[in-house]
Design goal:
This protein is an alpha/beta fold and 238 residues long. Helices cover 34% and strands 11% of the residues. The protein is built from 6 helices and 5 strands. The protein has a 5-stranded mixed sheet. The chain is elongated. The chain starts with 10 loop residues before the first helix and ends with a helix.
């Protein structure tokens, strides 16, 4: 045998030797530059998509079908008020308007045929004898002054008779307060209406999610009164 001939080494031995060399060098992991979505969810199969859609839509449809509708009550009764004086008396004394009764109600302020009617959802917290007598009322006074008018020249009213925090306006309107407000506006006969607050829309016969900027008229009893809906005084203060 030639002494200069190198001994034959198998491929397996060479591979293990290379791995051992890299480990000795401190490199014992394989790295790659290709991005890998380690946390990505596997694409659902068409069968899984159909099953998930059925599981989601079926309970929602059942809930919508079984959702109770607000009970509509004839709050005006058989003899509705025929003028504003009778309306104010009705508003402050009629026991059937709510479960609390007349206590704590605040009446509208102003005369019929005013050029502007300012309408809010409910009296301000702290009102006792006058509608909007607290900080929101002070803001309204400044707004009216900027418009070149004042409270004595407008008709100021609320859709609800007392301060009602977190009021379910949709249910209250559907339960009869929409009709009350329509009759109230018919008696007041304002030239224009400025309604403050998005949640006042159900009382005006519109959905709360509707674009209030698109509303320009209030239709009632064959009449059309120019209407503008703006943010509530509370939101303006914020």
């Amino acid at each position: 045998m030639n002494s200069m001939t190198q001994p034959h080494t198998s491929i397996a031995a060479q591979f293990h030797a290379a791995i051992a060399w890299w480990k000795e060098a401190g490199v014992d992991y394989d790295f790659a530059d290709n991005a890998t979505e380690w946390l990505a969810e596997p694409e659902p199969t068409p069968e899984q998509v159909a099953a998930e859609a059925k599981a989601v839509t079926k309970p929602v449809a059942a809930e919508q079908k079984s959702a109770p509708q607000p009970e509509k009550i004839d709050l005006l009764g058989q003899s509705p008020p025929q003028d504003l004086a009778a309306w104010h008396k009705f508003w402050l004394s009629e026991p059937g308007l709510d479960a609390i009764g007349p206590r704590g109600r605040i009446s509208a302020v102003g005369d019929a045929n005013a050029d502007l009617m300012v309408l809010v959802v409910d009296p301000e917290d702290g009102d006792r004898d006058q509608l909007l007598s607290q900080s929101q009322g002070q803001l309204l006074n400044r707004i009216l002054a900027a418009m070149g008018t004042d409270r004595q020249s407008i008709y100021l009213a609320s859709a609800l008779p007392r301060h009602t925090p977190m009021a379910d306006c949709h249910a209250l309107a559907a339960g009869g307060f929409e009709e009350l407000l329509r009759h109230h506006i018919t008696l007041a006969k304002p030239g224009r209406i400025l309604a403050l607050g998005r949640n006042i829309l159900p009382f005006l016969g519109h959905e709360a999610a509707q674009d209030h900027a698109a509303l320009s008229e209030y239709c009632h009893d064959d009449q059309r009164t120019p209407l503008m809906v703006a943010e509530s005084l509370e939101s303006m203060m914020g």
